[in-house]
Design brief:
homodimer; about 400 residues; alpha/beta; Aminopeptidase; Alpha-Beta Plaits; 2 domains; 15 strands; Amidase_Cbmase (chains A, B); Allantoate amidohydrolase (chains A, B); metal-binding (chains A, B); Peptidase_M20 (chains A, B)
């Protein structure tokens, strides 16, 4: 398809949830999310696609085959997610959904009729940007998280996932594994903007997702007056936290992985008070699990040592941990061939495709990102590359839906 | 007076603004602050004291002398503030106001009639806990802050000081210097809980307030995806911030002062995003101004160096800076003698007394704090010591209001 055709549909969602920063605030079940879901429904209706929401709040549009089609009835699932990290980029998630709608148009314009259902999915809370656990919709579907835990997850205002779902008219009591849906899916292909600078062609195919996880860290000490407490009398958790930020970076650098502290909350968070508690989150990833474990072990032991020196408490607990995902090798090679020898590359970013890959043959297509920036307003993809992504996804759906 | 008498009045305000932490949320112009002001008015009315609010939102109760009293008409001002830091202790501020009310009772019970007005003041926004600038009410009175700047100060929700004042029924257009009030004040004596472990008698007299200030620090970098951005490609302001926290402590330790980072805000503050910006506040204090300047200079140069290595931006700007305050030596010695040789000690904490000392002969009385904790729920003072504080304040008011 041409770049202008991509741009026309893309522009329809560009204003939804856009902040002054140029980034997006599209949290699950927020007004922006509901506007995007309504837009998705309208697009599906325009195309005569049947829509439904599954028990976990994931939304689908079905392009059903003609009655009596030859295949086994199992669907080809594509799509991605609408939700964003706070002030995230435009492409991360929505590109996969918009591209899927355009790929359907392209296949129809070419006279293609699928032999099996082609389903476009919009997954819930992929980023964990509101409730803290990424890929929540796909994890629930795959039985990878306890529904009670999911219902009780809270956002920054204390609203639970269950309450947010219910306020949006969905039923949180229904949350839970969906093995029938997984069994009825022949393959899942998620198209996504590339999130680093690793892809130097318009479109690539994913090989693997690095093992990764997030850990909550609690640094505890003694709140006190910043102007009157002698330094030797202090038990200041901000010091231990600061050490931990630098230690995480150092351990990751030495081991050849990634570690990031991007989120921190101090209590009481007052200029003239020594903090009584600092809570922060560690994001760590590595090419393999041994490296990730080495980073974590080195980090924990160094921070514990420092906490003992600072007289503070340090506790670290995983909030999510995802082992390495190697995408289906046969499918990966088939798609790379189909796309004329597209580059095959791994990613450090988690995706619903990474969760579903344990249950369904799964592949990912990446669209080039010229800035390499993601999870920030500078995230980018050219209209030309996005159009090439639509063409590639159409070719893949045609191949898999025969 | 006896401890039980102190406790009876003290218990009346104990529940107002108390949080689950055991600390207090008594921000200026909040519901809790207005409840405390209403309580103050009721106490004044019970004692037949005339109340007024000055142009800067500071509230007063006047014990006027008999007509034809001998003195020159200038008042003896006492009192303190009701507002707290977030989750601050019970005593910091309110102790000075409650003690003043009880001291009036004690003087009256002893048949004393003042020769000059005795005025109990409740100053606005002493902590800067809501609008960031400490001693705001006294600074405005003293002409030490531009009223336009004060009106425009915002709280965490973006509400301005002017809006908060207006919502509470006060007039922010009137803010400004109050030289007539200062000229009509013969002396100011603020009673306050001691905020360290420096006082080993029930009551002491202040010698000086250390020079101190708060600086806003902005660390800027490039927001990006925590899972896909190579370490060498990052410009992560959280690293520079972490270095700064440790550097501030080190510089203060080497120079013999205090430095604290207790407040931090990261943007976008997401677990899986490298921060694009971290804003934090430095609180620094020292026994003299040369030491404070040395701490700041060492700190700035080391953080600038680190920011260059991290590829981040670092900007630091003072939000308030208070030179050393030496309280009126004659008044200090007179009070220490009057109180039977009470200990004389400096403090690192700022107070309205520190601001007004430039304009009015000013003294402070400290009440012993057995935990040494302040700006946190663990702040303490025994009822016996508080009662001794009331006796001391009554003796001082009797001495000064003759």
């Amino acid at each position: 398809m041409d770049a202008a055709g991509f741009r026309r549909l893309w522009d329809q969602i560009a204003p939804i949830g856009r902040a002054d920063s140029g980034g997006y605030l599209r949290f699950s079940w927020s007004e922006a999310d509901l506007a995007l879901r309504a837009w998705f429904d309208a697009q599906a209706a325009e195309r005569g696609l049947r829509t439904e929401t599954d028990r976990n709040g994931n939304r689908y549009a079905h392009w059903d085959p003609e009655p009596g089609a030859a295949a086994d009835g199992r669907a080809v699932l594509t799509g991605s997610h609408f939700d964003s990290v706070p002030h995230g980029g435009a492409y991360d998630g929505p590109l996969g959904i918009v591209s899927a709608l355009l790929a359907v148009d392209e296949l129809r314009a070419a006279g293609f009729t699928p032999a099996r259902p082609v389903v476009i999915g919009a997954f819930t809370e992929e980023e964990g940007g509101r409730f803290g656990v990424p890929c929540l919709g796909s994890r629930l579907m795959a039985g990878a998280i306890d529904p009670d835990r999911a219902r009780a997850l809270t956002d920054a205002d204390g609203t639970t996932f269950a309450e947010a779902m219910r306020a949006a008219g969905a039923d949180p009591d229904a949350l839970g594994p969906d093995p029938d849906r997984l069994a009825a899916t022949a393959a899942f292909v998620e198209l996504h903007v590339e999130q680093g600078r690793a892809l130097d062609a318009p479109v690539g195919v994913a090989s693997a997702i690095w093992p990764h996880g997030r850990w909550r860290m609690d640094f505890t000490g003694a709140g006190d007056h910043a102007g009157t407490t002698r330094l030797p009398d202090r038990r200041d958790p901000m010091l231990t936290f600061a050490f931990a930020v630098l230690a995480a970076r150092k351990e990751a650098r030495l081991a050849g992985g990634l570690a990031t502290v991007g989120r921190v909350e101090a209590v009481p968070n007052a200029t003239n008070a020594i903090a009584s508690r600092v809570t922060a989150w560690l994001d760590a990833r590595a090419p393999d699990e041994a490296v990730l474990a080495a980073i974590l072990a080195g980090f924990e032991s160094k921070v514990c040592e420092r906490a003992a020196r600072d007289g503070t408490g340090f506790a670290i607990a995983p909030e999510s941990a995802t082992p390495i995902v190697e995408f289906d090798a046969a499918l990966r090679d088939r798609l790379a061939d189909l796309l004329g020898g597209a580059p095959v590359l791994p990613t450090g970013a988690g995706h619903d495709a990474g969760v579903l890959a344990a249950h369904v043959p799964t592949a990912m297509l990446f669209v080039r990102n010229p800035t390499g920036v993601s999870h920030a307003p500078g995230e980018a993809a050219s209209d030309e590359d996005c159009a090439a992504g639509v063409d590639a996804l159409a070719a893949v759906l045609r191949e898999l839906a025969c």
